[in-house]
Each structure stands twice: as structure tokens, then as C-alpha cells.
Amino acid sequence: MEKYQNEALSFEERARDMVEHMTVEECASQMLFEAAKVDHVGIQAYNWWNEALHGVARCGMATVFPQAIGMASSFDPELLHEVAEVISTEGRAKYNMYQKYEDYGIYKGITFWSPNVNIFRDPRWGRGQETYGEDPYLTSRLGVEFVKGLQGDDPRYLKAAACAKHFAVHSGPEKLRHEFNAEVSGQDLEETYLPAFKKLVDCGVEGFMATTTPPPLSRHGIPVDWEEKPWQSCSPANTAPLAACLSLSTTMKTACPPLPIIPWTGVPINSSGKTRCSPLALVSLTPSLPIPI
Questions:
Q1: Whole-number pLDDT of residue 288
Q2: What is the pLDDT confidence band of residue 182, given thresholds at 50, 70 and 90?
Q3: DSSP code at position 190
Q4: Cα separation of 267 and 278, whole Å?
Q5: What is the distance between the alpha carbons of residues 148 and 82, in angstroms, rounded to a whole number?
């Protein structure tokens, strides 16, 4: 029996051993949101894209709750927790059914790109209904409870995986999101746009999605110094080509370029572009990086 087949070992040990049995090409195939099947190590095809802002979306029948902005109007964190629990239960049931019939298509996994904890300040954005409004404190409270409800409280397994988006100043205009820089003051960045993301990190959110309209973070006191403070480094640019997601429930404590890193934690960011990357695959591709899992 290979180590990766031994269920008595930790996920980290098994994943490391699995990567060692894979070729560079096979590792690279896991870097897309539509990850390929790798038969000889038992990796099934998986599509990381699913949505659950106010119910399991885009794939069959599901309970439809009010839009996030409507639920936020309740000012009730416990309600958001209960809503997320229902969503994860339905999402897990759908996932089990699709697995039974070997259906591995888009919107059929349990990695949900929710919640959206961006701050809604301008109705011209066009996606304000996805958010919890304009208040950083309320957004933080509701986002934390949504994540906890979605991911569950089992000490070993996730019921589903939440994803905090879009890090960090992502408030439109939507049609220009791939073109313009979101210019905000350092004070506004710290007091308005970052607090909710910090709270979601603290509560253990499984993934991050980077904005495609990045603010110039390095100009506002968030270090980009890989040598002195690697645990606080954050890429100030659109980092889609090598963005990393926490696809194997792993937390990387240190990192080196070109991985974009979330401040406060050192964990990699899940890009909002079309690349989705396993940290362990990156370790395989670049074995010299000092990245303990």
C-alpha cells in the first residue's frame, strides 16, 4: 500500500506522497478550475466552480433564499448561519448524487465561491446584491457565520468549502473589472475593505478569490517584501496565472514568489481568473520552494 492510500495518515502526508507519484504534466493538470482525472493515483476529475450566495445555484432544484443584501437587512448573524447550514446540506446531497452517477461537471462540486464580502458603496457596480451592504462590521459578522454554517463543525472533514471573494477592493464597474485599478486611500483600505477578509481568515475560511481590479496594496502599507515578512506578503497585481487555492485543506505557512499571499496568514489566494491551482502541485513543480504543508 502506498502512503497516499493509507487512511490512517494525515491528509497532508497522503497528499505529499500522491504528488510524488505524479508527473509534472499530471500536477499541472490540477492547476485548472476544471481539474483532470489522474487514474493511477485515484484522482477523479473535479470542477472547482460552484456557487451558493443564497442557495445552491445553477444545477437543478434547490432552496432559494433572498439575495445576500436582503438577508443582511435582517441584521441577524444566526440567521445567516442557519441559511448556510441548509445550503451546505443540499449541496452535499447534490454532490453525493452526482458522484454516484459519475457526473463531474461544472456546478456539481462542494467548493462554493461564496460568500461575497466586498463592500457595497456604489449601485453602479451592478453586483451589490451579492454583498452584505456597506458596513464593514456587519459584513464581517454575517460573513463569518455564513462560512461557519457552510463548512460545518466536524474537526476532520469539511461539509463544504467556502471561498471569500473578491479580495479586496472589488466594487465595479463590472464591465471594466479586468482593466482598471481600484484606487482607495490607505485608511479606507484598512478600515473599510480589509476587515471582513481578516475575520473570515480568522474563522478558517477554506479559500480566497482574488479581485480582478486590484488596489495598489504595496502603496498602503501591506508589505510586498518576500524576504523579511513572507507571512504578510501580498501581490499588488492581478495574479491569475499562478494563483493558488486551498484545494486540499492545507495551509501554507511560508511562500516565495510568484504565489500571491493573503496578509495576516501567509495562505495563498484563489484567483478570480481561469486558473485554479493546488498548493501541493506547485510544490511538485517547484520542489525548491520552502513551503511546509
A1: 36
A2: confident
A3: I
A4: 12
A5: 10
**3-class secondary structure, 200:** helix
CA distance 40 to 99: 19
pLDDT digits (tens, 9 = 90+) for 247-288: 322 332 223 233 344 444 444 444 333 333 444 444 444 333
Question: What are the cell numbers at 200?
Answer: 473570515
Phi, psi of 55 (to 5 degrees): 135, 155
The Cα–Cα gap between 36 and 28 comes to 9
Give the model confidence (pLDDT) of 77-113 as tens digits: 999 999 999 999 999 999 999 999 999 999 999 999 9
Fold of 47-215: TIM Barrel (3.20.20)
Distance of CA 264 to the CA centre of its chain: 16
- For residues 292 and 254, the answer to whether their CB atoms sit within 8 Å is yes
What are the phi and psi torsion angles at 20 (to 5°)?
Answer: -65, -20
In whole angstroms, give the CA distance from residue 170 to residue 130. Answer: 12
pLDDT, mean over the chain: 78
Question: Which region, left, alpha or beta, applies to residue 75 given φ > 0 means left and ψ of -120 to 50 means alpha?
Answer: left
In sequence order, which ranges of the chain are alpha helices (DSSP H)?
11-20, 24-28, 68-72, 77-100, 136-151, 186-188, 195-202, 279-285
Rg over alpha carbons for the chain, rounded to the nearest Å, is 19
Domain residue ranges of the chain, discontinuous segments joined by +: 47-215
Tell the residue number behind the cell numbers 447550514, with chain if given.
85
Contact between residue 250 and residue 208 where contact means Cβ atoms under 8 Å apart: no
* Omega before 173 within 30 of 0, i.e. cis: yes
Give ∠ CA 149-240-133 in degrees, rounded to 5: 40
